[in-house]
Amino acid sequence: MSEEERDTQHLPAPSLWPIGFAVGVACILVGLVISVPALIVGAVIALVFGFLWVRDLMRAHPVTAAAPGAPAAAPVVTHADVGDNVDRATFLSLATIGVSGLIGAGVTLPVLGFGVLPSFVGDGVETHDVDLGPITNFPEGQYMIATYLENPEQGEVSRRTAFIRNNGSTDAGVPSFTAIFSRCVHLGCPVQPNGPIDEQAKQEVNGVELLPVLAASFGCPCHGGLYDSEGNRSAGPPVRSLDRYEFSIKDGNLILGRLFSVGHVEGVGATARIQKYYMAYPGVHVDGIESWLYPIPTPGSTG
After folding, report:
1. Chain-centre distance of CA 225, in angstroms?
2. CA distance 24 to 31
3. In a domain, 233, yes or no
4. Is residue 94 included in any domain, yes or no?
5. One domain for residues 101 and 173
6. pLDDT of 159 higher than 80
7. In angstroms, rounded to a whole number, what is the distance separating the alpha carbons of residues 37 and 43?
8. Domain count, the chain
9. How does residue 118 score in pLDDT terms, banded at 50, 70 and 90?
10. Rounded CA gap, 236 and 252, in Å?
11. The predicted structure's pLDDT at residue 255
12. Is the pLDDT of residue 24 over 90?
């Protein structure tokens, strides 16, 4: 046998497992942005192809026996010959996979923790029902600026403002109210009603300040966001309609409940049809193609 034949190394055949592993990692990254199912599929692909890749690296290379009468071939050292020892190439490959896995975990786990976990455990913001007083304090067809402490124990940090309008009764005879939150859905700046405010008619009942206003629309003085009288976006950078409160009537009093996000409002007053969504942060789309970037709803702040 020539020197060239004796020096030939038995290298493993090319493998497609690393490509499959890379495809799985890419699906995981895409899934973090687009959808949870894509993330799960990517994780499964990465685990399967990663396992097959490691198995190939650990598998012993077969030794080819020489033909009868032919000179004995030089012995090839395999994993079977060295027992538990691992050759340098295999060690470097496994070390590369391990380090890459640690880097990937260090990058993805914090993102998952901050971006996904709050959707399941909440963001620690507790919403309190607020009694705004008798519904007779709200004239039909007119907005009232209601200012109150959501949690009196916390003091001024829990002061909120809502725009409340008594819409009368629905066709079913149920009282209808429009209860709009006063924070712009662009970046959360305070929204102001566009219309004259009757300071002389201001009243305070059980810590709730009520101020009549002829609000034809609502505007954000920070970045020029404009909303119509139902809270729909009319102009500027906001990405959706103004958020609203759930409400109920108890013993003749108006009770504000949880906040929810609104995609769009069709109609006005008691006949309005509202596209209601889970409460989202300012700047987050809740409908349309853009909402695909936010597949998991995140709890919004009530501040």
Report:
1. 23
2. 10
3. yes
4. yes
5. no
6. yes
7. 10
8. 2
9. low
10. 39
11. 92
12. no
Q: Percent helix, strand and coil across the chain, each rounded to 5? A: 35, 30, 40
Q: What is the pTM for the complete model shown?
A: 0.60
Pair (76, 26) in one structural domain: yes
- On whether both 279 and 159 belong to a single domain, the answer is yes
State the Cα–Cα distance between residues 16 and 8, nearest whole angstrom: 24
Question: In this structure, is residue 123 part of a structural domain?
Answer: no
User: Residue 110 — φ and ψ, nearest 5°?
Assistant: -60, -40
| Nearest in space to 178 (alpha carbons), one of 135, 204, 143 | 143
The larger pLDDT score, comparing residue 103 to residue 261, is at 261
The mean pLDDT value for 61-73 works out to 52
Domain with 34, as residue range(s), is 3-116
Residues 84 and 137 in one domain: no
The 3-state secondary structure of 252-295, one letter per residue = CEEEEEEEEEEEEEECCHHHCEEEEECCCCCCCCCCCHHHHHCC
Amino acid, single-letter form, for residue 87: D
pLDDT category of residue 176 using cuts at 50, 70 and 90? very high
Question: How buried is 151 (Cβ within 10 angstroms: 0-12 exposed, 13-18 middle, 19+ buried)?
Answer: middle
Do 91 and 62 reside in the same domain of the chain?
A: yes
Pairwise pLDDT comparison (36 vs 183), residue with the higher score: 183
Residue 77 has pLDDT above 60, yes or no: no
Q: Is 155 helix (H, G, I), strand (E, B) or coil?
A: helix
Q: Which of 43-47, 93-97, 104-108, 193-197 tops mean pLDDT?
A: 193-197
Question: Is 228 among the domain residues?
Answer: yes
In the listed set 63, 93, 116, which residue is the last one of a domain according to the structure?
116
Is 89 in the same domain as 8?
A: yes
> Strands of 192-194's sheet, edge to edge?
192-194, 217-219, 226-228, 233-235
Asked if residue 133 lies in contact with residue 205, where contact means CB atoms within 8 angstroms, the answer is yes
